[in-house]
Amino acid sequence: MTDISNMAVREIVQQSELKHIAFIMDGNGRWAKNKGLPREFGHRAGAETFKKVLRYCRKIGISVVTVYAFSTENIKRPKREVEAIFSLLLDYIEEARDEDGVEFCFLGDPAALGEDIGKKARALEEDTRGGAHRVNIALNYGGRAEIVHAVNELIKQGKTEISEDDISANIYTKGCPDPDLVVRTGKETRISNFLLWQSAYSEFYFSDAMWPDFSADDVDAAIRDFAGRSRRWGGLDKNETRK
């Protein structure tokens, strides 16, 4: 992709006020299976795609990227596949320190996946705090569990009545803008318990590409689609209010 193309997409990002993209990185296992490879090969390829997409989003001016790395349900997968995913996660946590100016935040309960993952995840959060760009990694995460966690935190605080603002202040992404755009790859058209609270008014984009094949051009296609939509948040758009 040329620098001119990058500039054009960056301008679209600015004009559409697109600040936060969330990705449901689906299709790693099927990508590998279609090539006659074990599923863990797909996760390895998907990890490389994640790094490329993350850097590209930063390049075109996206302030926040959230990725669905491992759900609370994924632990049910075959042991060999889960161990491969954990190994890739640990490798990336080490590499992530080289991502200049990026603040990492883990959504969910990474400590439940093992002491090593939990400690290294929290250390990365501490060491990168204050970065200009933010990356949320949903790890051992479920949207329903997140809401339950927020409500339990409010009960501990002595709340007897709970408002939307209370929940927003106690979910894992507190202080972070809600996603403007949620992108899911892999031909599936569901949200799979991802950012249930935060995505109430997000735009959704579903790509047929399996995650390992997802490219900068696919990111651009999602952004252009987003820019062509009218976001009303339950109200009317500007043209309708003038009638």
Largest sheet report: 6 strands, parallel
Written as H for each helix and E for each strand, in order along the chain, the element string is HEHHEHEHEHHEEHH
User: Would you report the number of β strands?
Assistant: 6
What integer value in Å does the Rg equal? 18 Å
- What is the average per-residue confidence, as pLDDT, rounded to a whole number? 93
Query: What's the arrangement of strands in the largest beta sheet?
Result: 3-4-2-1-5-6
How far do the termini sit from each other?
42 Å
- The helix count comes to 9
Give the fraction of residues assigned to helices.
40-55%
User: Uncertain segments of ≥5 residues (pLDDT<50)?
Assistant: none
Beta-strand percentage?
15-25%
What structural category characterises the helix and strand content? alpha/beta
Gross morphology = globular
Describe the structure using short key phrases.
6-stranded parallel β-sheet; 6 strands; globular; 243 residues; single chain; alpha/beta
Any chance you could write out the topology, listing elements then pairs?
Layout: H1 3-15, E1 20-24, H2 28-34, H3 39-59, E2 64-71, H4 79-95, E3 102-108, H5 115-128, E4 133-141, H6 143-156, H7 164-168, E5 181-184, E6 203-206, H8 216-227, H9 238-241
What this model shows, in words?
The protein is of the alpha/beta class. It is about 45% helix and about 15% strand. It has nine helices and six strands, in the order αβααβαβαβααββαα. A six-stranded parallel beta sheet has the order 3-4-2-1-5-6, with helices on both faces. α5 links the parallel β3 and β4 (about 135-140). It is globular.
